[in-house]
């Protein structure tokens, strides 16, 4: 392996310097720091697939609206805690037109990215019932949500959904929910990191069991509408973005501007709480926070304490982007289809050089091409594969880091440029020549 693009000594040096004991468990930010050091010393430009950040320009309609809002003087004014009225109205309208789900504007709350929304919702859900002290993650999933649980000191359990698709999901979920200690379930759809998409059958199972066991469902829609196998764009006409909201009335939806509008830097998202859950009174919330209603507690007790609302100008940007999409003037899905086109090319390059896609199907249907895909290589753990790929100037994160029980890596396509595909192909071919069986 002396012919690798990156000297092994450089890689090992910075792994030691950053005190990363196990690459298989390294955080995303640790991997980012590691690659930055290796790139600088080795003078080798990496194929960087470790960080899930947008690779497209921000939506112009949002930028224009935010500039206009700033010029009008909103920077000097505190916004209302529950959000400006135009945003609440447009968020509710967007959800109706693209999901066929009714959520009142009052229940649509802007948050500093979905990260703040999930933190607040998990914190409150963890206190609705003194007997229900545990959150269940349907993995694989976004690692930082579990870090949020650790910061809060809350308990959680998780399982890898890989072997429990379709009707098998029912018995698996029931094995947890029947214990009586689960207050909420969390999953992303489309999924980070595997890009699996829950089927209608699976969403119905989740919804039915949530109702049966009185559990709150938290649906992370960071990649809203990005299952490119279906045309989910036309406002007000099917097919719609699939959601558990069709099957239970105790849910929280998180819709982020970061990926669908390429607006990650402004930290804007909507937490949409079902009307039934918004108004529900919990005696234990009175004990913990001094107020009984779920929605009021999230906004006026938790979000108020966290940030006292989100950036005023960003709210105007969000309102404008939702409105333009709902009016049919801004096809945000067409804009982000580039991720799917790149994913197909990149997956083909990996597979043709000895790799396999780890999460490859939704039911009987091949998985969509999108923001992420998963890769494994015969005979290697995820940690071994990651370290070996670093010698070839290719970076990613391990699936173990996401709650997966499978060996392999999550690859993000967003920051891989098309002019890097030739380099990627050469490096993968060399990798396979050195490791192929």
From TrEMBL:
Its cofactor is pyridoxal 5'-phosphate. Keywords: Aminotransferase, Pyridoxal phosphate, Transferase. Residues 54-422 form the Aminotransferase class I/classII large domain. It comes from the Bacteria. The keyword DNA repair does not apply. InterPro entries: Aminotransferase_I/II_large, AspAT/PAT-like, PyrdxlP-dep_Trfase, PyrdxlP-dep_Trfase_major. GO terms for molecular function: pyridoxal phosphate binding; transaminase activity. SUPFAM superfamilies: PLP-dependent transferases. The keyword Coiled coil does not apply. Belongs to the class-I pyridoxal-phosphate-dependent aminotransferase family. This is Aspartate aminotransferase. The lineage of its organism: Bacteria, Pseudomonadati, Bacteroidota, Bacteroidia, Marinilabiliales.
């Amino acid at each position: 392996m002396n012919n690798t693009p990156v000297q092994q000594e450089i890689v090992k040096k910075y792994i030691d310097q950053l005190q990363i004991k196990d690459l298989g468990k390294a955080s995303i930010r640790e991997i980012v720091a590691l690659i930055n050091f290796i790139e600088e010393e080795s003078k080798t430009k990496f194929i960087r697939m470790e960080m899930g950040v947008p690779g497209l320009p921000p939506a112009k309609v949002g930028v224009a609206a935010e500039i206009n809002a700033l010029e009008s003087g909103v920077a000097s004014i505190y916004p209302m805690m529950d959000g400006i009225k135009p945003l609440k109205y447009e968020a509710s309208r967007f959800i109706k037109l693209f999901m066929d789900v009714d959520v009142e504007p009052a229940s649509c709350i802007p948050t500093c990215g979905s990260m703040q929304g999930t933190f607040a919702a998990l914190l409150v859900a963890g206190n609705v019932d003194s007997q229900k002290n545990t959150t269940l993650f349907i993995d694989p999933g976004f690692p930082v949500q579990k870090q949020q649980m650790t910061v809060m000191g809350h308990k959680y359990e998780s399982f890898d959904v890989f072997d429990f698709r379709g009707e098998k999901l029912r018995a698996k979920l029931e094995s947890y929910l029947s214990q009586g200690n689960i207050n909420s379930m969390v999953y992303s759809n489309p999924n980070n990191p595997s890009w699996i998409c829950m089927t209608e059958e699976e969403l119905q199972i989740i919804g039915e069991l949530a109702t049966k066991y009185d559990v709150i469902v938290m649906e992370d829609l960071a990649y809203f509408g990005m299952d490119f196998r279906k045309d989910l764009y036309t406002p007000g006409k099917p097919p719609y973005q699939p959601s558990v909201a069709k099957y239970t009335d105790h849910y929280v939806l998180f819709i982020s501007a970061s990926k669908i509008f390429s607006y990650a830097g402004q930290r804007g998202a909507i937490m949409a709480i079902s009307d039934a859950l918004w108004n529900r009174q919990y005696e234990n919330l009175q004990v913990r926070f001094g107020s009984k209603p779920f929605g009021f507690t999230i906004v006026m007790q938790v979000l108020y304490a966290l940030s006292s609302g989100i950036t005023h100008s960003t709210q105007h940007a969000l309102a404008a982007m939702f409105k333009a999409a709902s009016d049919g003037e801004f096809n945000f899905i067409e804009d982000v289809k580039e991720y799917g086109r790149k994913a197909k090319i990149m997956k083909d390059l990996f597979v043709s050089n000895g790799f396999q896609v780890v999460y490859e199907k939704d039911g009987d249907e091949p998985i969509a091409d999108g923001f992420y895909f998963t890769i494994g290589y015969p005979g290697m753990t995820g940690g071994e594969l990651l370290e070996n790929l670093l010698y070839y100037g290719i970076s990613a994160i391990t699936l173990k880091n996401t709650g997966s029980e499978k060996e392999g890596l999550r690859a993000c396509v967003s920051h891989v440029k098309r002019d890097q595909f030739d380099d990627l192909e050469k490096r993968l071919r060399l990798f396979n020549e050195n490791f192929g069986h």
